[in-house]
Structure prediction request, 178 residues.
Amino acid sequence: DGDHDPEGLLSTLPAIASSLLGVFAGMLLRNPAVEPARKVRLLVGWGCAGVVLGLLWHFQFPIIKKLWTSSFVLLTAGISSILLAGLYHLIDIRKHQRWCQPFVWIGMNPLVIYITSNFLGGLGFEKLARRLAAGPVKGFLDAHVAQGCGELVIAFVGVLLFVVFARFLYRRKIFLRL
Prediction:
């Protein structure tokens, strides 16, 4: 955006509110006095309220991510709360945990992955994915499947490399903590 910050000082307050809403959700999830099913109901209720209030507030104060408007915060916090409730129910209550193991690998070593990616040059995994899947593969997919499909495959290969690296670090018990 050139020489200015589009968010500015006034957008800092909604960003702080957004962070605090996440903290409150985390406090609810960590509270042993509240039964798990009630936690899900509360998160879904708060989420629906946030979505409705954000959409209603949008008529007076538009939802603009770049400016981090309060209507944007309400809407996204509401959607996030509903998603959190669903994932909490699925993973922690129903114990469907096997599918989310790659997120554990990534979450155990985010700094090493980030630093390695930057060391490889910007989005390092994406650059490596381009060397593996671009060229004839991308051209074939764009010409015979759908325009842009080649870029999608490159992005998928980049994410796959990212996850494989995270798994490698996790299996070798290589963790960077600050």
